[in-house]
Amino acid sequence: MTSRPTATSFAILGLLGIQPWTAYELVLQSRRSLHWFWPRSEAHLYAELKRIVERGHAQAEVLEDRRQRTRYTITPEGRLALRDWLKTEPQPAILEIEGMLRLLLADQGSKDDLRAALQATARQTRDTRAAQLPLVAQLLTTGGHFPQRGHLTERLIAFFDEFNRLLIGWCDETLAEIDTWPDTHDVGLTRRARQRLEQVVTDWDL
Predict the structure, then answer these.
(1) What is the CATH number of domain 7-86?
(2) CA-based Rg of the chain, rounded to a whole angstrom?
(3) What is the DSSP string of 28-71?
(4) What pLDDT, on the 0 to 100 scale, is given for residue 65?
């Protein structure tokens, strides 16, 4: 008995809905697209691809050329399942940032530990932004691999660029804030922190 489809199942089905891929090509494409907002390991993608075939949502064809490869193509049943899933309500957004976890638990460590974690998070996020630039340049010059889907890709890039800039700014602001703390424990709500929380309430009322 095959497992129930997951959001990752439909992510892969969606890629197969664009065109057939070998498993290797599909993993490469996921690095250019899914990886930015739906990161999954290569092993996970390969395993899910096999389950999609077991469900009858895709078919596998062995290609014989210089080396043996398997190409995957979405089936009519797979397209129907994908359309049905696209009509459902998505799950709530989740956020997973280890630097923020380090902040939450910082009163059990030192200021230097927290400062290093935030600096690393900012550096990693800048690296992520830099890694996106070749994709943006490609879209502007050639339209990318699928020019007809540029309107969709642009909306994703716009979100991630804004999110990355927000995260970098938050790290910089938080680094400046912790420099005013004597330590990471027993500080309480500072005047500036209270003002920021009051602004949250004010903005929400708007």
Answers:
(1) 1.10.10.10
(2) 22
(3) HHHHHTGGGTS---HHHHHHHHHHHHHTTSEEEEEEESSSEEEE
(4) 76
The reported pLDDT for the residue numbered 204 is 85
| Spatial CA neighbour of 134 closest among 11, 24, 25, 31 | 31
Q: Where are the domains of the chain?
A: 7-86, 98-186
Lookup: tokens for 159: 């979100």
pLDDT per residue as tens digits for the range 142-187? 998 899 999 999 999 999 999 999 999 999 999 999 999 999 999 9
Q: Tokens 């500072």 label which residue? A: 190
Q: Which residues fall within 8 angstroms of residue 91, CB to CB, at 6 or more apart?
A: 7
Q: How many residues does the chain have?
A: 206
Q: How many CB atoms lie within 10 A of CB 163?
A: 16
